[in-house]
Amino acid sequence: MNDVSSDLYPAIRLDRAREAVRAAGLGALLLTPGPDLRYVTGYDAVPLERLTCLVVPAAGEPFLVVPRLEVAAAEHSPAGRLGVEFLAWDETDDPYGLVARRIPGLAAVGVADRMWAMQSLRLRAAMPGVEQVLAGTVLGELRIRKSAPEVAALREAGAAIDAVHRQVPGFLKAGRTEREVGRDIAEAILAAGHATVDFVIVASGPNGASPHHELSDRVVRPGDPIVVDIGGTMPSGYCSDSTRTYAVGEPPADFLASYEVLRRAQEAACRAVRPGTTCEAVDAAARQVIADAGFGEYFIHRTGHGIGLETHEDPYIVAGNTRRLEPGMAFSVEPGVYLSGRHGARIEDIVVCTESGGERLNNRPRDLVVVDA
To answer: What are the backbone angles phi and psi of residue 213, rounded to the nearest 5°?
Structure first.
């Protein structure tokens, strides 16, 4: 992600981050490579044992501490257009001491949620007595509502992963292994425009009852239901994630019955999305349909998770989350029914909350797709 639209990573994010630091009563944010740094600057820095750290002080100008050998990459990233001071350090320098000397006398700082423990501890040693809190407590309120360019990026990601699901029936055949099918899907994810393949789940027959099943050498058999959950990251840095369930030949009658319940549950949850509705109410909309049909104990995970620069981020669509939906919040709606030792099914769309309801960003058919064995 070296050349992205300034509309997607506008300079105003840095100003908003600094305002949020002040509002939180912190002295600074310390952002190392990962989604927090990408959100604020657009810089997709390589995580290394050498410290790269954006410092956003409550008072004073932001600066980026960066290994000298990474300076060119940083300058050519969107961060190079922000006017942030770059402080290059050499192999024999102490970058942690450099950070500490530039922001003395602070009581508390926010550190990137994905900062390596090694770096957090070394910063703590360089700044003894300075409390560390998660930067997510500051940036989360900015990241949770997607701007129009961010929604457009997620819509593009949704279309790309839909294009892969369109090809999946051609990869499924009795006699092929999950791993062979997964290899074809991974190639299709990249061909559809993703920069990286983040995950490929091909869970056939009884493996479908494990929501996060990994590819195996199990051979697909006639009558197998197959859960295909796939996603990647686009050049924009924004993620895709979508699940559809297929069958190779005619599946068991009890599977068809549970799948119809699942389809109605997913539809009910998507209809529940509107501003002011709580996250737990969307979860309940799916869960109630499944429970009323007698499958409640087989829906074993939350209904959804937020998505953006990370596949899993706020808001989480789960019982107990009373956060109310607002326009711009984007998340998955993915109920599932899993009968251990027999089969499983899941339907997943990314949905963005709009002023008038919810917009699905995945548009492949949600009915069971049966392919010839």
So the answer is: -55, 140
Domain residue spans in the chain? 12-143, 148-371
- Residue 148 in 3-state DSSP? helix
Cis before 315 (ω within 30): yes
Specify whether the CB–CB gap between 353 and 327 falls below 8 A.
yes
* pTM for this model (two decimals): 0.94
| Single-letter code of the amino acid located at 267 | E
User: What dotted CATH number matches 148-371?
Assistant: 3.90.230.10
Answer yes or no: are the C-beta atoms of 136 and 337 closer than 8 Å.
Answer: no
Question: CATH topology of 12-143 equal to that of 148-371?
Answer: no
Burial string for 112-129 (b: 16+ CB within 10 Å, else e) reads: bbbbbeebeebbbebbee
Q: Which CATH architecture has domain 12-143?
A: 3-Layer(aba) Sandwich (3.40)
3-state secondary structure of 259: helix
- Mapping DSSP to helix (H, G, I), strand (E, B) and coil, where does residue 134 land? strand
Low-confidence residues of the chain: pLDDT under 50: 1-3
CA 128 vs CA 52, 97, 121, 137: distances in Å? 20, 11, 10, 22
